[in-house]
Amino acid sequence: MRKFSSVLACLLVAGSLLSACGGNNNNNGNAQGNTGEEASPAPATANTDNSTAATNAPADDITQRKVTIKIHYPTPDLTEMRAQEDDRIKRFQAEYPNVEIIKDDWQYNVSEIGVKMAANEAPTFFNTYATEAKFLVEKGWAADITELWNKYEYKDQINPVLQNQFIIDGKVYGVTQKGYVTTTMINKKMLDDKGVAVPAMDWTWEDMLNTAKGVADTKKGISGIAPMGKGNEAGWNWTNFLFEAGGEIQNVEGGKVVATFNSEAGVKALDFYKKLRWEANAIPQDWALGWGDAVGAFQQGRTAMVMAGSDGVIEQALNQGGLKPEDVLTYPMPAAEKGGKHTGVLGGDYLVINPNASKDEQEMAFRYITFDYFSDKGLDALDAILQQRKADGKYFIPPLLDYYAADSDFGKKTKAVYDKYSDIVYQYNPDIMALLDGKPEAQYNTQDYYATMSNVIQELFSKKGTDSKAQLDAAAKTVQEKFFDTIKVE
């Protein structure tokens, strides 16, 4: 799912203080490119007659040839992000005056990408998320950028946990922006007000259940936890518990994709949702909440816990909801049992280059994507963002996972910038890093699986006494016959 971070997704540079998934961090979740100097000849000087320059330039000098790229651009409501992107465009064109940039605010949609490609209307590069790698590659809608990647000076410093999602059969088809491991955000003030103890960070399903039950107050419309209950988000939220119980969404057997979520682990995870709903009465009475609804409930103090990528939730809670950093705690997902893994869905944001673009357009798109990556200009841009945040009286929330390794030289430089603004930069509890366990989303028809499971979740929340095994068997049959049976794995 891409829902985790709609606010910081297009920051020029979003650094990470942390590393996750047994050693690295993302979100991942969103920053953009390096200067491009290491992969190209010296930039061209400005020339008012680009056609003349192109005619007289060496044939192998891309900086002297006229190139037009249509870039992924934030939507109109994201005014701050648009201003940041405009600044990057200005800096990029100062270095590459031969490049004309067209802005396109189309946001990736699985139901629209095919039409965009067929009509040749897709941008030169576009955003997508981790689940789409196999789909886009198999459809021929993601360019093979392996040659560009292999020439990229900083490729070995990119976060491998994230980048590997778009490396298929040894070929590179996308560039990571940032990622996330699903976490649980807790409103500590709500727990304190009800006299409910803050759980240990190494917590379990039982701890989550008891905490949610202790805070819930149905008469006041307060829930202890708000699991998402509509849209694909509902299936996405529940999948964390499937993973924590040791289950899998699918397996590949004999060249076929086989649904496996209707397992003993799946039943265990679904039964836990039953406890939250019917035993603890801890979820919202109006449980049909999408990502925005659940995060909004947390922001407004109507629920004590919500599960998602951390930075987007905290951004809204602090900068729109007026909560204080000390009252918003970020926890790993709970382990099914004491000593178990705190597994959360690993996802992220990626940029994919249009295979219909020319070779020159693809190369300039790659240079644009990586323009601020690992660069001092990128750090300067981050510093400027933090200065503005401080001037505006707003907090800055770093992603848990970023495009670079947190222990790299660039990661240390980024941390130094954050340290200058420690009063406004949200600090994650360092204890979380030893507990986070990220598991990548399945690579085949994951969004279809999420949608199917959302129907299961809605039935469970609306009807008491549902049969978890029967529900999962029916859902697995649907996913298998409608989607997985159409896939042939080489």
UniProtKB/TrEMBL annotation:
Signal peptide: 1-19
Record has Signal as a keyword: yes
Matches recorded under InterPro entries: Bact_solute-bd_prot1, SBP
Region (Disordered) location: 29-59
Cross-referenced PROSITE patterns: PROKAR_LIPOPROTEIN
Keywords from the UniProt entry: Signal
Superkingdom field: Bacteria
SUPFAM superfamilies tied to this protein: Periplasmic binding protein-like II
Official protein name in the record: ABC transporter substrate-binding protein
Species for this entry: Paenibacillus auburnensis
